[in-house]
Design brief:
Strand order of the largest sheet of chain C: 6-7-8-3-9-10
Radius of gyration of chain B: 19 Å
Number of strands of chain C: 10
Distance between the termini of chain C: 34 Å
Largest sheet of chain C: 6 strands, mixed
Structural class of chain C: alpha/beta
Chains: A mainly alpha, B mainly alpha, C alpha/beta
Distance between the termini of chain B: 39 Å
Number of domains of chain B: 1
Oligomer: heterotrimer
Largest interface: A-B, 41 and 45 residues
Order of helices and strands of chain B: HHHHHEEHHHHHH
CATH topology of chain B: ABC transporter involved in vitamin B12 uptake, BtuC
Number of strands of chain B: 2
Chain lengths: 335, 288, 232
Amino acid sequence: MKGIAISYAVIAALIAAGPLVLGEGALRFSTECLLILAMAQMWNLLAGYAGLVSFGHQVFVGLGAYGLFLISDTFDLSPYWVLPVAPLAGAVVAAVIALPLFRLREAYFSIAMWVFSEIVAALVMKASWLGGTSGLPLKSSRLVDLDWFEPMLFWVSGVLALGTMGGLFLLMRSGFGLGLMSVRDNDLAAMSVGVDVRRNRFIVFVLSAAGCGLAGAVSFLGNLYVSPAAAFDVNWVVYMMFIVMIGGIGTLEGPIIGTAIFFGLRELITDQLGISAGWYLVALGTVGVVVMLWSPRGIWPPLRDRFGLKLLSVGRTAPATAELAPVSGKAGQLG
Amino acid sequence: MAWLETLVNGAFLGGLYGLLGIGLALVFGVMRLVNIAHGEFMVLAAYLAVILVSLFPQVHPLFVLIPVVLAAFAVGYLYQAVIMNRVARAPDPLAPLLLTFGVSIVLRNLMVEVFGADVRSLQLGELSRASLNLFGLSIGVMPLLTLVAAVLLFLLLQWALKRTQFGRIVRATADRRDIVRLFGVKPDRVYNYVMGLSLALGAIGGVLLAVRSSFTPFSGVERLLIAFEVVVLGGIGSFWGALLGGIVLGMAQLAGLKWDANAGLLYAHLLFFVMLLIRPAGLVASKA
Amino acid sequence: MTLLEVAGLDVFHGDLQAIFGLDFSVAEREAVALVGANGAGKTTFLRALVGLIDSKRGNVRFDGGDIAATPAESIARLGLCMVPEGRMLFDTLTVEENLLMGQVSQRSGSWNLRRVFDLFPALEERRNHMPRQLSGGQQQMVAIGRALMCNPRLLLCDEISLGLAPVMVEQIYRAFADIRTEGTALVLVEQDVKRAASASDRIYCLLKGRVSLAASAGDVSLNELTQAYFGM
C-alpha cells in the first residue's frame, strides 16, 4: 500500500512539473495520452467490473464537450469554471437511459448504446442552435489566458487521469468494489447474497459516463472547437475498447499498458513510417483481434500470472486463484 | 394517397431491412454470437458487386449476385472456421463481442485504404427507376422485387431449417452443442455452414441496398444498426418477426424522411428506442 | 468377445482428479451395471468414455481400436452411444425429429423409426409434440429411442430411472430386454442398486472415483454391495 501511495505522489509531482519541463508539442501529446487513459479506465470500469460492454460511450464524450461549450458561451463564463457541467451532463443522461437500456443483456445492450449515440448525434446535427453539422467555436476562449492554456489542460487531464485511477483503486478495494466484482462474475449468485445488482450497475454506469463527459470536454476545450462528427465519432469508443482489450480488461494496469501500445503504435505508423491513419486503424484492429484470439483477457493478466507481478492488484480474479480482497480492504500482498 | 404510397414503399424497404437482419439473427440464434462485422461484410459484398459489374459490363448487373453470394458463403465459412470458432467457445461472453468489433474496424479501414472513401452505388439503369401503377399508387419495381425476394428467401430459409436434415442438425446444435456430438455431428462444422449462410444472406441484402442507395466504406455501421434493430424489434428468436420488424422500421424511415428530408436513419432509430421502452420483448412474442 | 476395454483410466475436471486408475470391461451383448452414490464419478466416467471429456489418460479400447484420443463425433460413428443423464433432448425439435437425429451418424442396423415406435407406442401418438409437452417417462423413452436410432453396439445409459414413477421404470427396463436381444450391449448406471443389478450380468461399484467392487451379479450379496457403495 505504501509503495502505491509513494508512486502516486511521484506521478502527481511529475504532472505538476510537466509544463515546466516539456515543450508545447510534447505537452499536447501527454495531455492526449492522459485523457485517453482516463476514458479507457471509465470504459474498463463499466465492462471489466460491471460486465457491461458499451459501443456507445462516445455519446458521453460528445455530451460533455457540447455541455461545456454551450454553458460557457451562453453565460459567458470561463470554461475552466464550467468544466463540472461536463461530467454532470454525462451522468444525468446516463441515469435517464439506464432504465430502458438495462433490460437488455450483453450484445443487445452494447448495440442499443450505439443506436442511442447515433440518435443523439443526429439530433445535434439537426439543431442549428448547436451549430448544426459544422459545430461550435468556443467564443468564451477570449476569457482564457492562452499562455497558460496548454499547461492548464495538461494539469486538468493529469488530475482526471490520476483521480480516475486512484478513485477506481479505492473503489475496488471497498465493499462496493467487492460487490461489483461478484456481480461481474455471477449476478445471480451475487443477488442471492444480497448484492443489489441493478443499483451497483447503475452507479458504475453513471460514473463511467461522467468520467467520459469530463474527458471529452477537456479534449475539445483544447481544440477550442466542437463538431458533431468529431464529438460523437465512434472511434472514441474504438480507442477505449482497444486499449482495454489489449491491455487487460478488469485490471487497473491493463489500460496503462494498452494506452502505451496505442500511442506507441500510432507514433510508429504515422510518424516514423509515414503511413496514413487508415492503416493505423487496420493495425490497431488486427492487434486487437490477435490478442482476443491468443489471450482473451488481454496482455497484462498472463504477464502478471507468469511473473507474479502485483502492481495495482484489485483486478478481476481468474477462476483458479481465490484472490478475493476481504471487505476491510487489505489485499494482503501490498504491505 | 401520398401517405399510403409512403407506407407501401416503406413496407418494401422493410423487406430489404429484414434481409439485412436475418443473417445476424441466424448467427445469434444458433451460436449465441453477435457478429459486429456483419455490416462491413455486407458493404464488402457491395464492393465486390461493383467491381464485377465494371469488369463484365456485358452481363446484367443482377447476375453478379450469384458469384457474390457464393464468395460471401466461402468467406463466412472461413471466417468462422479460422477465427470465430476459436473464440465462440471462450467462457467469457465479451471476447467474441470485442473480437468481431475488431474485425469490423479492420475491414472498414481496409476498405477505405483499398477502395477509397468515394461514394459508390450499383447501377441497374432503367430497372432502378421503373415503377408500376397499382391501385392508383406509384410503386417502384425494384422495391417490389426486393420485398418479393426477401419473402422468398425467408420461406426458403424456413423450409431448409424445418424440413431438411441439415436444418434439423442446425437446430439441434443450437439447442445442445455438446450432446449433438453424440450423434456424429461436428458443431464447429455446423457453425461454419451457418456463418457462410449468414454472410450469403447479408450479401444479397448488401447488394440490393447498394442498388437502392449509395455506400461508402463507412456504411457498414448503418447496416449493422438496422440489422440489429430489425432482429430486436421482431423479437429475438423469431425469423418472421425480423421481417415484420423490418417492415415497421422501413415505414418509419420513409415516413420520417417525408416529413424531414435530412434526417437519415434518425426516425428508424427513434422508433426502435420507443419500442424498446414500451415493448422490450419485440413485436412478435418470442420463444427466447 | 470384449467390446469395451478400459485400463488405468484417470479423468480430470480442470485440476481436480475425478477418476483414479479405473479398470472396466464390457463383452458383446453383455449388460453391465455401474452403481455408486452421487458424486462417485459415474457420469464423469461415461462422459469420458464417449469423448465429451478431453482431460483424461489411460487405455480405452472399443471394438479392438484405441479411442482414448478419438473425438466424440467419431466415437459415436463407431457405435458407442450414450443416453445422457437428464435426457438432454433437443428442445426445439419434435419427438420424431429428435429420434431422426439418431440417423445422422449413418450407422446401419435394425433400429429405425418404426421399430422405436413399436417399442414405445406412447411416442408414436406424440410424434409431432415438443419435448416439453411430454412427461418425464416419455422424455426418457425419446432419449433412449434417439440413441437406439444410432444402431449402437454398446449403449451407455446414465440414470435412466431418475425421477420416474416405478411403473415407468418397469416399462423401460422391459424394453431393455428387447434391446439386448437385438445384440446391443448395455452399461446401466443407476443409483438404484437393486434395479440395475437385476437387469445385468455383472456389476461394478464406484466409490470416490475408484472401483470398490467388480463381480458377477449373481455372486454378490446386497450386504457386500451396500458396503462397497458406502465405503464401509
